[in-house]
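Posting here for the record, re: iron/sulfur cluster.
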Amino acid sequence: MIIAAYAMGITVGYNYIHGEIFSAYERFEDALEEARAAGYLGDRILGSKFSFQLHAHHGFGAYVCGEETAMLESLEGKKGQPRFKPPFPASFGLYGRPTTVNNTETLAAVPWIIRNGGQAYLECGRPNNGGTKIFSMSGDVELPGNYEVPLGTPFGKLLELAGGVRGGRRLKAVIPGGASSPVLPADAIRDCPMDYDALAKAGSMMGSAAVIVLDETRDMVESLLRLSYFYMHESCGQCTPCREGTGWLWRVLARIHAGRGRPGTSTCCSRSRRTSRAGPSARSGTPPRSRCGRC
Ligand code: SF4
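Prediction output follows.
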C-alpha cells in the first residue's frame, strides 16, 4: 500500500478488515507499529519528502461491505450499504474525495512484481490468467486455510494442499468462488484448472476464490438451506426484492427440506430469484439492478 500510495501521490490510506477476524486486525496494528518505528510509515518516509499515514479499520462483519461503496460508507461510520453509482469512488469516494479502492491481495503482489517484473508474474499462471491467487479452502477438508498457488493449478492439487477431503471421504461437490458461485459436482471440478476461464467454462466462476468443499455425506438441500439463510441474514435491506426475496427463498427451501415441498415450488424459487434480479428500481423506474449487483 505504501508503494501504491507513493506512485499515486496519496497521503492517507485505510486497510478495512472484516470485523469477525479480529486477530488479523490486531496483527495488522502490530505491523503498522513496526513499520512506523522503522520509518516506513508516517511523516517524511525514510528521510524523503513523501508522507503517508496508514490506518487499520475493522468493520462489524457485514458481507455486503465487500462491495466498495458499502465499505466506504462503513468506513465513514455509517451503515454499510452500497451507494448508487455513478459517481464512482475514483471521483467521489471516502468523505467525497477521489479514492482508489483495491483489495489487500492485489496490493500484496506489488513488491514481488516490482522485484521480478510483470512478465514473470504473468508467467506464474496460464495464458489470459496470469499470476497467483489465494484460495480460501473451507468445508470438508482436513486443513482449511488460505493457499496461494499459480492461477490454473488443478483443483485436485489444491485439495491435496488442504489435506484432502476430511476423514478420507469421497468428494461430492465444490462451490469454487464463494457462496454466490454455482456449485460444481465432483466430476466437473476434480481436474479443472482453478482460473477465471476454466471455471467459467465448467459452469461456475472464480468469484472470491473462497472454495467450499462438500463431501459425500452432505445433503445438498440442507447446504442450500444454510446458504439461503446466510443471504437472508446478510441482506443489507436496501433493495426490496433482496430484502423480501431472500427471506422467501429461505422459507420455501425450509419447506422443501422438511419434506413439505409442493408442486410449483421450484418455479416459485426461480420467480423469486428473477424478481430479485429484475425488480424495478424505486428511484429511476428503470433498470432493474440491485445496488451491490448481488442479485
Ligand atoms: S441487493 Fe440490495 S438489499 Fe441486497 S445486499 Fe445488495 S444492496 Fe443490499
